[in-house]
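S.,

Sequence below, as promised.
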Amino acid sequence: MSPTSTPIKILVIDDQEQNRAFARATLEDEGYEVVLAASGEEGIDRFQDHAPDCVLLDVRMPGIDGFATCARIRELPHGAETPVVFLTAQRDLDTFDSALRAGGDDFLTKPVRPTELLLRVQSSLKLRRAYVSNREYVDLLRQQRDDLMRLQLQKERLMGFVVHDLKNPVSNIDLQAQLLARDRLSADAREAGAHIREEVRSLMRLLLNLLDLSKSEEGRLVPARAVIDLSALVREVCDALGGRAKAREISLRQVVETTSLAADRDLLRRVLENLLENALRHAPLNSVVTVTARSGPGGIELGVADAGEGVPLALREAIFDRFVQVDKPEQATNRSGRGLGLAFCRIAVEAHGGRIWVEDAQPGAQFLLSIPNGD
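The prediction came back faster than expected:
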């Protein structure tokens, strides 16, 4: 966009003030002119007054919702050719199909990152310009895009069903392993039962991680906060993975300097289990893995440190993305395992309003997370 050209005008319709402020700041930084509306009714009025080049439209609003607002906009002068990008916390096939039926051009799931928002606005504007000159080709591209999105949402729904159905047989395996470990058999049989339980717990963590990642995409991962005894929680996590540490001749060290935190106990326990499992996978034999809890500037800070290979500086952000693996050239192991454990850790910590990062442990890696202690 050249400095002398007329700014492209974007209408943002959202009942949440923070969402409007986010969109305005993101778009105005790129030179767009932004018009705001706090409801569907107000958005229709603003559309008629300002004739925007693109509309960002929230789905769930009091009064007339986003779908009805879009349908009304399509009936206005210039409304049929103006791109409408839906913003929603509901990532599911029904919402996507409803957005298309209402006349939406694109579909963005909250929370939206600034770069993603800009790219979608730019692509919608380009697609609309291309549509004027080559409607048949653009219609084909849009249909292919919508088919791919629908396939992705169907895959996510299927994954949720499969993971949910796998929980029962995995729980039954764990129960049978408990009986085996407690039975009056040989020491080897009891030890085998204990190992089975460890692997089953690891598998259950993977299943729950997948479920929570799916919930996060749909905006349904909401922590149930309560005051947690951090000393007991850290001890419980270390005990659960103690057998794995013992097998690798690794010592677990607990340094708990603060004793309580208001958080979702189940989510936080699984975050620590994922971080500790990751550390044990990469810690050298006969080394020490340290779990810490202390007060920090942003709230309560927890950490897990090992003396392994560490994480390259260039990958310290990407390692928390799904399916990212930091491979060691000489080994088949990787720092992020299946590529889901650390992704789960980030979405669980961010759901608490916190952050997670990795630093050098000199040697090794130290994974740290900070959660505001808002009791």
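Residues 328-334 have pLDDT under 50 and may be disordered.

Coffee later?
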